[in-house]
Amino acid sequence: MEKNMDITIFDYEVTLDEITHLFVNYYDKQEYMQNTTYRRRLQDLYVLFKMREDRVRAGDVLNELNEKKELNIAS
Questions:
Q1: What is the number of structural domains in the chain?
Q2: d(CA 75, CA 5)
Q3: pLDDT higher than 90, residue 8
């Protein structure tokens, strides 16, 4: 997965049903980015890809999440 902090669920044409399922309270990418952490955005992406059964992208996001966790532990 490309390491870009600006990538969100909105970059993958998320539907209103998916937004509701993800418990996201924002319908605009800018507002979503201002009010969520990078980790939360990764978690939302992971769940979105799992719902869509896109295992490759879900795995990439999971790797990124684990990498962030390792960095936090090492700090």
A1: 1
A2: 20
A3: yes
